[in-house]
Amino acid sequence: MKFDHRFETVEASPSMRVCKSDGVTVRLDFFRHMLRVAVLKPDVPLLPTWSVCPNADEVPLCGRDKLSTDGFAPETPEISEDAETLSFTLDGVRFSIEKKNFRITAETGKGILYRDRSGLAMNFAGELGRGSVHATQRFSDQRIFGLGDKCGPVNKTNRRFLLGAVDSMGYSAAYSDPLYKQIPFYICAHAAGSYGLYYDTYSNGSVDFGVEHDNYYEPFNTIRFDEENMVFYLILGTPMEIVRRFNALCGGIAPVPEWAFSYTGSTMEYTDAPDADRRLRGFVTQCGQNGIRAGGFWMSSGYTQIGDQRCVFCWNPEKIPSPKDLSRYFESHGVHLIPNVKPAFLTEHPMYETIAAHGWFLRDADGSPAQFPFWGGMASYLDFTNPEAYDFWKTCIRKQLIENGYCHIWNDNNEYDVPDETVTAHGFGRPIPACRIRPLFSYLMARASREACIEAGVSEPFNVSRCAIAGTQRVASTWTGDNFTSFPELRANHKQIMTTALSGFWFFGPDVGGFAGPKPTEELFLRWLQYGIFLPRFTLHSWKPGEPSTMPWLYPERMREVKRLFDLREKLVPYLCAEAERCRKDREPLIRPVFLADPAYDPESDCFLVGNSILACPVFDEGAAEVTAVLPDGAWRLRGEGEPVAGGETVTVPCAATDLPVWFERA
């Protein structure tokens, strides 16, 4: 073991440096607003990336070289170098790198912005354990934002999280971990400024923002992950600039059709019912009877049931006699169907043996299909890193769904729970343990679904994926998964949503009313609607056996109040669509914590911005009769009416559960 690695420059260009020590290579690439650092171990192949895509084109199906500079704006800083240090200035930030152990320090006029831990910050030769390790200085006033759909407060300081993705049905948005997304990107803000860190990996690991203390080091943050090579981006700017630059790094965001901003219905109850066709058509009827505009309906997987098994791409003719007639019925009423598809094929699936014979599943060490528990049986996951399996999926999407009139895809249950290191993936001709790239399969699945729609002539497919990596936003939107119904969870779900907004996503939201758990009380139901109408994805979805589904008509005696809320949502749709397109071009989140615009604003506030012009002020407390809000910078009008109120003012507004929600518009 060695804690003294002396690096020497072995290759140099105006926008790149390569240094080596004891066989380990560290490469620096200087880009506009960011520094890329690659720590490469000898004789360890560097995996491609599917996340980094700065030229806004899609990456090759087999991935992009992680060290490619295509699409980046290179910088050529003036570099000074001696035997001990390497120094340069990037984006106004002064960098100094100690060649001993390659310790990076970045300073602004306000002090140290970023610094690697003293002693040893990176795992060059196994001194810090297996895999990759990166330890950075922890500042006493640091605030940490991002990391995907992570639970708890918006500020993740003093928390520890796993890097991984699982099917966490009925999770707690206050403390459950991990959830559905695997996005090792976060923003650190403190007195000297802010920076972002993105680690370009799909392997499992952990991040620690203050839980761990070690007597032999000053306070530090740590990330650990299984992949031996480490490539990370240090992104400079304000928090909003960092979010924009991270989105640009990942290639931007796919557009969403206008109808998807209207209410979209969903429930497992309808498609699980033996008379699914009648129940689904009944949704259209009930919307009409109650004067509710629906843009779409999410078809849960019950339409694929054969007995008790859910067999993707298999229509159950007893439940839905004619898939084409059903899609035409919905189309004639202006409602778009979004069918659920899953990437695992149960062993009883009619196509299982055929897929296995072609070698399109993930494989055990002996070459047989690897099998895992999945929805009440054993199943094998389709290997999307096998081009033939990828094309097979696209064919199924086209023949079983698109040709029957189902042109928008709900990619679900795609977290790939594959911990066994002996299970291998094709890897586009370079076999790899599947556990090293688990969340990548979800991106490839969503990409294949979107490509199938576009190749079939669907002009603007609405493609959704529950699991996600950085870059998934190029091919699919997402949602926050199978949440739980309670007042505390409503607020915790909101903080999870703000965290997702700080992690590169644009169109998303929760299951309004909660997916799992008890039927929402009348008060909770109305409060959740008051909140949900301001979110990009406005979907009521639930699975509550023995209870009625969470639909707009859950409480018939409150339909007048419910319809007012749904009508307000429809009035907001033009604004949401316009702001969404602006945000997509500017690479900003559509909904976001207020502090992105007003840095002094409390990150944990219940209030949030919807685009640039609306401040939503929801009520999350049971029994509350009013809402108190601190107005951010600028001038604001309550619900767009009356005299403007100056930013900085604290305003209390009455708001019963039966009222319209409280929001302010920029004067």
What does this structure look like?
The chain is an alpha+beta fold and 667 residues long. The protein has ten helices and 39 strands. The strands form nine sheets. Strands 1-2-3-4-17-14-13-11 form an eight-stranded antiparallel beta sheet. A hairpin with a 2-residue loop joins β24 and β25. α6 (387-401) packs across α7. The longest helix has 28 residues, at 559-586. It is globular, with a radius of gyration of 25 Å.
Largest sheet features: 8 strands, antiparallel
Portion in helices: 10-25%
Class per helix and strand makeup: alpha+beta
What's the N-to-C terminus distance? 63 Å
Strand content: 25-35%
Oligomer state of the chains in this structure: single chain
The residue-averaged pLDDT reads: 97
Give the tally of β-strands.
39
Strand order of the largest sheet: 1-2-3-4-17-14-13-11
- Give the low-pLDDT segments: none
Helical segment tally? 10
* Rg (C-alpha, Å): 25 Å
Overall, the morphology is globular
Q: Can you tag this structure with a few keywords?
A:
seven-stranded parallel sheet; 667 residues; 20% helix; alpha+beta; eight-stranded antiparallel sheet; globular; 10 helices
Short synopsis of the structure:
The chain is α+β, with helices and mostly antiparallel strands and 667 residues long.
